[in-house]
Records
---
Amino acid sequence: MYISDEKIKLPEDCDTVVWKYLDLSKFVDLLLYRKLFMSRSDKFEDQYEGTFSEPTFEEIRKLSADNPDFLDFYKTRRKNIVVSSWHLNEYESFAMWQIFTQKNEGLAIQSTLGRLQKALEVERVYEQHIGAVNYIDYKKEYIPFENSFFPFLFKRKSFVYEREIRIITDVTSHQLIIDNGLKIDVDIQSMIEKIYIHPKSENWYKNLVIELVKRLGFDFAIEKSDLESDILI
């Protein structure tokens, strides 16, 4: 299910390219168990995750003056929202390689919005939602709260470089106690269109990734990074 609103502009083209940058251990975990890890929203580095901008908070505070449970609902809900983050970009991102991989090792999964939606169809327990993050000034701009997912689809302008698409799940009704996150079923073959190996990785690492993918029974296209140059000066 796509989340759409006049302030949340998810691309309409299902062939829109999205990326996920991750280290080898997380990639192997994904292929081995065929499950996508989703992080608990209040575990992200950004402490504003799932909160409101100042104008919105003031409105909610007034509404909750005679009903404190109204505000408590939003505070506690962060523990029950899990998120898988993807990067919207037609091309590879040097910044994403730098942020999400280390020691010149790691991979990037290339997918599309359509592929993500199809890949999530195998999950029967948890309902999935896909939305684009909107980047705003939290001191001045308003975050609507008629949709309970909206606090998780807005971030401060400082993070605009992320160009984030999110898969979001609310597990409140399942009465779970989640530690760091939750794994959901996905169709790996549908989700992954191509794999790109870190542009600065050595040949032994590239060969390791190719062999791992083969031994785990997948036949994804594995591409050389477009940021890896053959030009010698």
---
Amino acid sequence: MSQIVFSVTSPSDYPTTVKLVTEALKHEGFGVLTTIDVAATLKAKLGVEHKPYIILGACNPHYAHQALQAVSDIGALLPCNVVVREEEDGRVSVVFMDPESVLGLIADPRVEQVGREVAEKLHRVARMVGK
């Protein structure tokens, strides 16, 4: 089975890392379509405390368009989710969906190419924010 995520540890604190990830995504042509504050949701819905944890739904419109043109149902696998979370020891992890693996499930050469190109961009984002 292919690895469906890759991750880095940020040398910065949680709020700074969220900002750095968002800026690095923008630098690579991504926008953040959705922001899900998992910790806040768990607190509001269940009364449960959780370490800071956010899911950013990142989308590069150019590549999303290419993928949708190839396979209209591909939207079920979009956007590329990026998780920023504070670990128990205080470290901050940034976890990226691996679009090459996930989009490779489609077994369409056009979509696989999109997956490769988007993965390259997300790996650059990881290098910008990781150590």
